[in-house]
Amino acid sequence: MTGVSTAVVLAGGKGTRLASAFPDLAKPMVPVDGLPIAEHLVRTYAAQGVRRFIFTLGYRGNQLRVHFGDGSAWGVSVEYFEEREPLGTAGALAELQDELGAAPFWVFYADTLSSVDLSRMEAHHRANSADATLLVHPNDHPYDSDLVDAEPTGRVRAVYGKPHPADREVRNVVNAALYLLEPSMLREIPRGVASDFGRDLFPKWAASHRLYAYSTPEYIKDMGKPERRVQVEAALRQGKVEARNLRNRQRAVFLDRDGVINVDSDLIKHPDELVLVPGAAAAIHALNQSDLIAVVVTNQSVVARNLTDEAGVDRIHARMERLLADEAGAFVDAIYYCPHHPHGGFPEENPAYKIECSCRKPKPGMLLAAADRFNIDLSSSYLVGDSPRDIEAGQAAGVAATLRVRTGHGLKPSTAAPTVQVDDLSAAVAWILEREKSRTSQA
Ligand SMILES: [Zn+2]
Questions:
Q1: 429-442 pLDDT, tens digit each
Q2: Is residue 211 located within the same domain as residue 358?
Q3: Residues with Cβ–ion distance below 5 A, ligand 1
Q4: Residue 21: exposure state from Cβ atoms within 10 A (0-12, 13-18, ≥19)
Q5: Is 258 an annotated catalytic residue?
Q6: Distance in Å, CA 369 to ligand 1 centroid
Q7: Fewer CB within 10 A of the end CB, N or C, for the chain?
Q8: Is the pTM of this model over 0.90?
């Protein structure tokens, strides 16, 4: 349950693209699996403790009034704010200062279907004393989206609108249109003029305020286009929307990086050195279509060895994510790396990272951290690696199966026996998905 009980629902947009299929309906009233999109939103988040929904109304807004009334049929209060003129995604909020009072509030988009564990996002917001937190995720078309450049802590450094300059390496971190705002931020929205969160406010707030990104593999998708509505409806009917909510146990595939996703050319220190293993992008795309989340866990002693720094590792990961997206519309849900190395005493090293840590594989620290963050059931998850260290880390974390690929260091002898040896990541993912099939048929 969330302690933030008020939500503003932005329902003023014109559904120009969806309108071809539903010419008479306001976009939030377009049905998905038998219910208006906006009703899915009210039901999902009323169940998590949101008690008060304020709809900002625009085009055909009266349909929402007629449908929701005062909200009592859903056990909540529903209020309405009429935009006299279109004020963009943010402009309408500036007019709501008096209604919203002194407590933080959620911002939802009425044409977006999601199921997010709000309590986790709220905890992230509070732990960082954030002024505003935006939900982010990787997607299959990052270069057509607003990209968020955040520190590992989540602190947003910059927000880049499209089109993106080709020479800049930015991670696949996309603004997914669900926010938690402190009431003080209402004063930072210009009154009476149209403005947009992604385009106008967040790029500015990144410099002036504590703007945080909260990254999650949970389901959130907007229905700006008719084909998306069909995809969302299918996901909803298959139970995929609710299953991904982090209140529910998740299952993951942990992926080593060098030798599994990219060719292991030994100590990669620059993005240009990163080349994908043939078929790896398509394999990860197949994982993205499954119920499993994809988490990279990689030892990167290049930092401890002073061959690059953490910002450099970030650029390398940005390149990897771009290659995965370009080649197959693939993405990974999270990347964990260990920058440490235990053996000190080399003149060129970075002593701050020359420590005995709990994250460097074969220790299971990175897998345990991901399991905690995403509520992962390790005993029904998988690990794919090329070295004995990977297999040992998977075993120490208690995963259901470890898969050793023959690319990279896969041919080194080892005492740590994997569950199975396979040629490469494609074969590993095929093995996992086949096992999943029999798992589903038994259930
Ligand atoms: Zn470490």
A1: 999 999 998 877 76
A2: no
A3: 338, 340, 357, 359-360
A4: middle
A5: yes
A6: 12
A7: C
A8: yes
